[in-house]
Amino acid sequence: MNATSIRVREAGPGDEPAIVRLFQEFAGTGSDTSPLTEEFVREYMSSPGSHILLAEGDGQPIGVLSYSIQPDLYHAGPAALIEELFVRGSAQGRGVGGALMADLFRRLARLGCVVVSVAAMPDNVGAIRFYRAHGLVDEAVFLERHF
Length: 147
Known about the structure:
There is one protein chain. The protein has 147 residues and is α+β, with helices and mostly antiparallel strands. It is built from four helices and five strands. The chain has helices spanning 16-28, 38-46, 96-111, 125-133; strands spanning 6-10, 50-57, 60-72, 77-87, 115-118. The longest helix is centred in the C-terminal third of the chain and has 16 residues, at 96-111. The chain is globular, with a radius of gyration of 15 Å.
């Protein structure tokens, strides 16, 4: 597989099982688990501003990028947040993540987004390097609280 054989598309009805499998695989790479279900994927995709991109190689899902768009007061325009990006282990290093990012950037430009943000764990050096290589810069500290 090379970058030209990667197809990126917006996920839609029927993609729920593949998305859940990719997220379960993603969670399994660390010490985390994901409670994601097909029902929640359907709910997510039906929420205004919530999107999922699927990367496929040889017709099989090999990567996923979820993002949301909402109005941003400070920037006075639509802002995007990359929520999750995962490439299946066997497809890593083959341009899948770059294809997802390029497709995302094209979509955001068409929608008039003024900024895109992403959070990465401080010790996830590979993800930080990846996002920096795609033009994202250290701009803020992202804090969160789980309930």
